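FAQ: What does the model actually see?

It sees only this:
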Amino acid sequence: MTDIQHETTIATLYAEFVWKRVSVEEIADRIGIVDRDTYLRLKTEWKARYREISDEIRQAKLLRRSGDEKSYWQSKRETLRFQARKTMLLRTALTVVARRHWEAHRKLAAA
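And it is asked to produce this:
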């Protein structure tokens, strides 16, 4: 593993790919091959981040329906939904990384 992979977190991946039009394969290539502990850490970070975004979306939806700043909360909610979609892209990339890891080990076992 390289030093870059040790520094890989959901926040750094999100910051790197948020404004780019990238595929899941490109993100999975960036993550590279990781060990089980790193994969589980990334998956846990992803779940925590997605839970935060989901809670913020729910709160913005409630605040959008009441109060004086309806347009602000609608805009905030749309921004959060965009973040949620990009975060889901990271989850799919983690699944691809896990699948690649499994296939590599399966080939080793067959040899």
